[in-house]
Design goal:
There is one protein chain. The protein is α+β, with helices and mostly antiparallel strands. 16% of the residues lie in helices and 39% in strands. The protein has a six-stranded antiparallel β-sheet with strand order 4-3-2-1-8-7, covered by helices on one side. It has a four-stranded antiparallel β-sheet with strand order 9-10-11-12, with no helix packed on it. It has a two-stranded antiparallel ribbon with strand order 5-6. The longest helix is centred in the first third of the chain and has 22 residues. The relative contact order is 0.12. Pfam families: DM10_dom (PF06565).
Length: 220
């Protein structure tokens, strides 16, 4: 193939791949509806302090978007780490404040230059409200801390995204079976398992695992 044509083809593929990635994560820019949120959301967050993992109870007051942090790390248990206040962050050289709907399990927040990962939540009211937006428990939070927050250009993307899916045109064996699709963002790999009937977001039998999906698009 002519070198110039080959170069043009490579650039075209690179551009299409970039557009596919941007489209795939476009959902993340949408604001979730917190209009019926509880007055307080009780979240669990963690921070990598050098090599030590420190954990916190994060209380988000949805009425005014203020946050308080109480440490739950062994040895520091129940010490007030941050009194109720709004959390500032810098974006495009502009000082802004986190809103309540930007704080939920799977997302990162910056607490006065400390990147914290929200890995779970507690209390029936908080859990029942937040589970409508996706997974609320990230057991591998230590790995997320080691990987660090996403780059500024990629937005606040959780390390995993989960979807409920059905097989298009599925007949016989796969008819009426729902699948739980787990997308590992940094690895660009998919795991697919049967969805358990009853509790939402619970894994059943493994269907496919570790699928390289770097060239796939996402259609919801």
């Amino acid at each position: 193939m002519d070198p110039w044509i080959q170069s043009e083809e490579q650039q075209k593929f690179s551009l299409e791949n970039k557009e596919s990635r941007e489209e795939k994560f476009e959902w993340n820019q949408e604001k979730v509806d917190y209009s019926d949120a509880p007055a307080k959301l009780h979240l669990l967050a963690c921070w990598l302090d050098d090599t030590s993992v420190r954990t916190f109870h994060m209380i988000v007051h949805t009425i005014d978007d203020t946050v308080a942090l109480v440490e739950s790390t062994r040895g520091f248990r129940k010490q007030l780490f941050l009194k109720r206040n709004k959390l500032p962050f810098i974006k495009k050289d502009v000082r802004q404040f986190y809103r309540s709907n930007e704080m939920r399990p799977g997302l990162w927040v910056e607490v006065y230059t400390r990147p914290m990962f929200i890995f779970s939540c507690e209390g029936p009211e908080t859990r029942n409200f937040l589970k409508r937006f996706g997974p609320i428990d990230f057991e591998d939070y230590e790995k997320a801390l080691m990987d660090g927050p996403p780059s500024e250009g990629s937005g606040n993307i959780p390390p995993q995204m989960k979807f409920i899916a059905v097989m298009e045109g599925g007949k016989g064996l796969f008819e009426d079976i729902k699948f739980l699709v787990t997308f590992h963002v940094s690895k660009e790999k998919l795991d697919i398992a049967e969805a358990v009937k009853g509790p939402k977001w619970c894994l059943g039998r493994t269907f496919l695992k570790g699928i390289n999906c770097s060239r796939y698009g996402l259609v919801l």
